Amino acid sequence: MVHAYILIQTEVGKSASVAKEIEQIPGVTQAEDVTGPYDVIVRAEASSVDDLGKQIMSRVQAVEGITRTLTCPVVHF
């Protein structure tokens, strides 16, 4: 299982609606609007890195109001 954090910047005033919509995407385990350089932080999981991109990231990036995303896969050393 691959886990990742997705850091999202949104248009002004859109963070709550973006987080609410993203939370409905299968594979997203948590989506919260936050303060700081990013507006929404998402925790997601998929069976592989490819599935993370195909099944989750493609849907996240299609959400209206998002201006930029940064995906950070979790690694275990």
TrEMBL record:
Pfam families registered for this protein in UniProt: AsnC_trans_reg
Domain Transcription regulator AsnC/Lrp ligand binding: 6-74
Signal peptide boundaries: none
Highest taxon in the source lineage: Bacteria
Protein name: Transcription regulator AsnC-type-like protein
